[in-house]
Amino acid sequence: GGRWPVGARGRTRHAVLATQALATAQMEGGDGLEAARATAERGLALPGVDGVDPRRRIDLMYTAAMTAGRLLDRSRARELITEGLRLAEVLEDAPRICSGMSFLGVGYLYADLPSVGAALIEEAAARSRALHRPDEAARAYVNLASITITTDPRQAMRFAEEAFELARTGGDDVFGLVAHINAAIARWVCGDW
User: Fold this and answer.
1) Which of 7, 16, 40, 142 could be joined to 64 by an S-S link, Cβ 3.0–4.6 Å?
2) How does DSSP assign 51-109, residue by residue?
């Protein structure tokens, strides 16, 4: 059992990866959003974090943004997503741009700017589809179904069905389940129950 030699940059990189994994587990598990947010924010404040692979920093920013948004600190969530999107644009990282657009779109929905939010989510869905990223496209279509259920339930059903197919293609059971729920609610609203 030899030691894995790691310099300062390597230690920071490993710490960022571990922080991302822990924050995600806390958010999805039972530890709570406050713990996940604190973990993600600590990761972003690590000494030398700017020297880490920028894609990992973007992922950590998005995780921190999700926790901030769920805890209703929308200004911090928007700040983190915007910062991540800027970095993704510089890197020309299309999948992370799509993720950021989708997250930002949801944020604008909560900020009472539904047309801006929907436009960002629709663009994220189109780009994700073009990139053959069914998981990202499914997330966007699930969000579109959720926001159109009360205003256009027939369109919401179409979005939900599309999300389900994409989730199945991408192997994402969670988005597949949410798509089914969205479709059921849309059918109920239409009287097709």
Assistant:
1) 40
2) GS-HHHHHHHHHHHHHHHHHTT-HHHHHHHHHHHHHHHHHHT-HHHHHHHHHHHHHHHH
